[in-house]
Automatic annotation (TrEMBL), chain A:
One of its GO terms (cellular component) is mitochondrial small ribosomal subunit. This is 28S ribosomal protein S35, mitochondrial. Keywords: Ribonucleoprotein, Ribosomal protein. InterPro entries: Ribosomal_mS35_mit (IPR019349), Ribosomal_mS35_mt (IPR039848). The keyword rRNA processing does not apply. One of its GO terms (molecular function) is structural constituent of ribosome. It comes from Musca domestica (House fly). The gene is 101900055. The lineage of its organism: Eukaryota, Metazoa, Ecdysozoa, Arthropoda, Hexapoda.
Automatic annotation (TrEMBL), chain B:
Keywords: Mitochondrion, Repeat, Transit peptide. One of its GO terms (biological process) is mitochondrial translation. This is Protein PTCD3 homolog, mitochondrial. Pfam families: Rib_mS39_PPR. InterPro entries: PTCD3, Rib_mS39_PPR, TPR-like_helical_dom_sf. It comes from Musca domestica (House fly).
Length: 328, 649
């Protein structure tokens, strides 16, 4: 402080402005000089001088940065041109005062600038309704009209009962091929095919667990060939072959005995004879033969095929009593 | 980037797209015939192209090659170039690493294999070379390797078939033994200064090199061999020898093709001196073509027009060009933009009469989309705009040219960055001279700075327009543009900016202009700081008395007294370094401001400065005397400076 005032005094002598002190020139003179200028005091050896005397670093000048371009955007601009595809959020390109995240309780969420929260979340700025509309318009020319006569689902399900499903993959790998793309699945409601009893039985045996009895849907998956086309052809071949095969009766099928049957059937069983024998007891007239009632047949088949339980047993009992004509 | 990050996740999820096709298993009981329309055929990229066509241009966004971030958007022509070339340098570094550490890149995991990712084959004396190798190299246009392998095959005595020799000759002739710039360096090609066309073409054909050897080895000489070597020589302007070979081929009664004739026509300028001789030769060549029953094409037309454009005689050029054009119109040759370019340079000459041929051209090609067909096609737009500006000075024509440029993919034909900037330079200069300021600003907002950054010369035109229209309220904005475009080291621009701000004193009573004096002061201070900072740099700016006086006045008007004092001190201190002095009016305004700010010492300092520099001190002294109640010391000082005449009223 004292050195400064000394300096000012000496300056005052030089200038002839009287009271006025020229502040600027005083500031401009380098501070190191005052030691030499003052002869009256001893010079001080400053041991730390070497530390303090740092080279004046050249100031790094930041280049001029443009203001965020969102400020320049017109209010009626075409947003789809600004944000045409999926992209991480960028505050300078989005002219919306968005906020996200929190700092302290009760404070407003941080603004969009330098906001990592906004960059982390996926945004859908490229999928605005006008953008979707534009894109749909653009690819409309590749679409064919929906065929006439197939307006309802019921109609097209009936006319085109076979569904073929395959999958295309888009992936970030050096190879553009995905082995799973070869897989072809065809599904079909079995009620769409026409069978007789034998054929249906044989067909179901042929397809095995590819048939889901609950939904009545047959599913054939083909993936044994390297190409999708080949797999598709193979699946269609399987379907055709199984269908036609099921109508052929092989000679050995005749030798199927009652024990090989998968279902109890009243018609072909010995119990039919027994029941009819009991019903026609003492009736020699062959023209007036009594047969079992349909209710009885149903309850019997239900009992054997569905297993014994209270309901089926009771039902059977009722039917037997009814048929024989006993009084309860 | 974003997309690439998402993709691995997608491949893990696997179910990306489910295509459900319903196949036809028709029931016989269909009550009516169901007609399923045929699939509309499309190319693999058709959908992408259709989607990309929906994306318009965003005037606020930079070109997509730059990062969309304020810190990384280039704002001057230099930084545009630097940023793009930095990316290119990265590409080059990657390429270099690939070749340098070739053993690390021998694996090929991509399916189908990507050839560009594999290192190039290296050949030495021991390499096993076959004809297939050579054919492969020729197919890939690897000139040096092809030459090496060719020579190696010769020394090893491997037989080279006639077809291989012919394709080798074609390769060497086309590229003149020089490796072409790799395809992937598109930025370099875009920014490379294209000297071809600006300078006089010179002979660059390598005489006596392998191409000629291969040509000599081919026995018997086929027309194709002649065609290849003649076209090669003609392309690199070895005109005399090309013509000699051409004559030789004719003597041998060989059937040459149209392209070879075209290449000779392109070289007529080198073969003959005067326009008459040139024209005679052209006619001869055309006659020969007729005899050989060759149909001339676009190349012939452009070659003829190029030859005609070199005629010094305006009238002759004009008539010849018209003859050629009508002749080719009869033949049904479609003109390319290159042809129109030649027509423009034939008709619109600097010292020739004014020609309105461009009007007809534009009427003819309005709304038409062009594809590149001739090397000179890229010259059309810059030249057309030049004609609009310098020859006809017609704004509506310029607008038409600009409209044509944006039809379809016509923008691809703008050429390179050099031609693009010439185009916009002419466009902006013309607009700034002929249109109203609102119209000009509309275009300016659309194109600056992402498409075009005005050069200092154009900026000066813009400032002139502002000056003329008195639209000084735009100055702060244009100043910030100039700062961003890095124009502030141009003294003429600084002076003009100051002049506009000085001569147009904002009217503070109008509400929209209340901010202006302050903003002007900021600009002036900016200029002051820039000049002070530039000291010690290579490109040094220096004050003139006029300039620093203007800064001082604007600061005073803007009410920034503190800085004004600082500037005045600078003037006072560096009296001997600053050539010239501020104007009297400037000093007077400073004194007025000193009175307002009640600092008599500054006023006296100003008076002293005026007196020392032989300016009108008396009026200043009178003003000071009137404005302040001065003490004895001050009055004594003033008396010593200007005498005591100021005390008399």
């Amino acid at each position: 402080m004292s050195s400064l005032s000394r300096l000012l005094k000496s300056k005052k002598c030089v200038s002839n402005y009287g009271q006025q002190i020229r502040v600027f020139s005083a500031q401009a003179s380098p501070n190191g000089n005052d030691v030499e200028m003052d002869d009256e005091e001893f010079r001080v050896l400053n041991l730390r001088a070497s530390n303090q005397k740092q080279l004046a670093r050249r100031e790094f000048k930041k280049p001029e940065v443009m203001p965020p371009r969102s400020l320049k955007m017109a209010t009626d601009q075409d947003w789809t041109a600004v944000w045409p595809g999926p992209r991480s959020f960028h505050p300078a390109s989005v002219p919306l005062p968005i906020r996200q995240g929190f700092t302290v309780k009760g404070a407003a969420p941080p603004s969009k600038y330098a906001n990592a929260e906004l960059m982390k979340i996926p945004n859908f700025l490229h999928l605005t309704p006008p953008a979707i509309k534009q894109q749909c318009e653009a690819i409309k020319k590749f679409c064919t009209p929906w065929p006439k006569g197939l307006e309802t689902e019921e109609k097209w399900k009936r006319l085109f009962p076979v569904d073929v499903v395959s999958t295309d993959y888009c992936q970030a790998l050096p190879t553009i091929r995905n082995p799973d793309a070869r897989r072809v699945t065809i599904t079909l409601k079995l009620s769409e095919l026409k069978f007789d009893d034998h054929a249906k039985d044989k067909f179901l045996r042929l397809v095995g667990d590819r048939y889901d009895s609950e939904t009545d849907i047959l599913t054939i998956v083909a993936d044994r060939c390297p190409l999708r086309k080949q797999n598709y052809d193979y699946a269609m071949y399987l379907l055709t072959a199984c269908y036609h095969e099921s109508f052929i009766t092989e000679p050995w099928e005749e030798s199927k005995s009652e024990a090989d049957m998968e279902n109890y059937k009243y018609e072909r069983n010995k119990s039919k004879l027994s029941v009819e024998q009991i019903l026609n007891w003492g009736n020699a007239d062959s023209s007036d033969k009594r047969e079992a009632s349909t209710g009885y047949i149903e309850s019997l088949e239900n009992l054997v095929n569905g297993g014994e339980n209270e309901y089926s047993l009771n039902k059977y009992k009722e039917e037997v009593i009814k048929m024989i004509g006993l009084r309860q | 980037m974003h997309l690439a990050r998402r993709l691995p996740a997608i491949s893990r999820n696997c179910n990306v797209r489910l295509i459900k096709t319903t196949s036809a298993v028709t029931q016989s009981a269909a009550e009516e015939q169901i007609v399923i329309p045929k699939r509309i055929q499309r190319s693999p990229t058709a959908i992408l192209e259709a989607l990309s066509a929906t994306v318009g241009r965003d005037p606020t966004a930079p070109h997509y090659k730059f990062h969309d971030d304020p810190y990384l958007i280039p704002t001057s022509n230099v930084s545009k170039r630097t940023f793009a070339m930095a990316q290119e340098a990265g590409r080059k570094a990657a390429k270099w690493i690939k070749e340098e550490h070739r053993n690390l890149f021998m694996h090929q995991e991509a399916q189908p294999p990507i050839e560009a990712f594999a290192p190039k084959m290296v050949f030495n004396e021991e390499s096993e070379v076959t004809l297939e190798t050579l054919e492969q190299l020729i197919k890939q246009s690897l000139i040096q390797d092809a030459v090496f392998v060719y020579n190696l095959m010769k020394t090893k005595g491997v037989e080279i078939t006639a077809e291989a020799k012919q394709s080798m000759l074609e390769l060497l002739s086309f590229y003149n033994h020089e490796e072409p710039m790799p395809e992937e360096f598109y930025e370099e090609r875009w920014f490379k200064e294209n000297t071809q066309g600006q300078q006089r073409q010179t002979k660059t054909w390598k005489d006596g090199d392998l191409a000629e050897q291969v040509f000599n080895e081919i026995e018997p000489k086929t027309p194709q061999a002649y065609a290849a070597i003649i076209r090669g020589m003609a392309k690199y302007y070895q005109a005399d020898r090309a013509y000699a070979l051409f004559q030789e081929a004719l003597e041998k009664q060989l059937q040459l093709d149209t392209a070879t004739y075209n290449s000779i026509i392109n070289n007529v300028n080198f073969l003959k001196e005067t326009p008459d001789q040139k024209w005679e030769l052209c006619k001869d060549l055309l006659q020969q073509m007729k005899q050989q029953q060759l149909k001339p094409d676009l190349g012939t037309l452009n070659g003829l027009l190029e030859c005609i454009s070199s005629f010094g005689n305006y009238k002759m050029g004009r008539t010849c060009a018209l003859q050629v054009l009508s002749e080719f119109k009869k033949l049904g040759v479609e003109l390319s933009l290159g042809s129109y370019y030649y027509v423009l340079i034939i008709f619109c000459r600097e010292r020739g009469p004014v020609s309105h041929v461009i009007v007809d051209i534009l009427n003819e090609i309005q709304g038409k989309e062009f594809k590149i067909q001739h090397p000179k096609d890229t010259y059309f737009f810059a030249t057309a705009m030049d004609v609009c500006r310098n020859h006809l000075h017609d704004r509506s024509l310029a607008k038409k040219v600009d409209k044509l440029l944006h039809v379809g993919n016509n923008y691809d034909l703008i050429g390179d960055t050099y031609k693009e900037s010439i185009y916009y330079r002419h466009y902006f200069a013309l607009l700034s001279q002929t249109s109203t300021i609102e119209e000009f600003l509309e275009t300016y907002d659309k194109l600056v700075p992402n498409v075009y950054i005005p050069e200092p010369g154009i900026m000066e035109e813009v400032l002139k327009m502002i000056e003329l229209n008195g639209a000084y309220e735009l100055m702060p904005r244009f100043w910030s543009d100039m700062v961003i475009f890095d124009h502030i080291n141009r003294e003429s621009l600084l002076l003009r900016t100051l002049k506009i701000m000085l001569n147009n004193k904002p009217d503070v009573t109008v509400k929209s202009q209340q901010q202006l004096p302050e903003q002007f002061a900021k600009v002036a201070l900016d200029i002051y700081n820039k000049v002070v900072e530039s000291e010690g740099r290579v490109k040094k700016l220096s004050f003139t008395g006029q300039m620093i006086g203007d800064i001082l006045t604007i600061l005073v008007r803007g009410g920034n007294w503190e800085k004004a004092v600082e500037v005045f001190n600078n003037i006072d201190k560096n009296q001997h370094r600053i050539p010239g002095t501020p104007s009297d009016a400037c000093l007077m305004e400073f004194v007025e401001a000193a009175i307002v700010n009640k600092s008599p010492s500054q006023a006296l300092q100003c008076l002293q400065y005026a007196v020392e520099n032989h300016m009108d001190g008396l009026s200043l002294a009178e003003r000071i005397n009137k404005g302040f109640t001065l003490n004895e010391v001050h009055i004594a000082k003033m008396k010593s400076l200007v005498g005591d005449s100021f005390l008399k009223e």
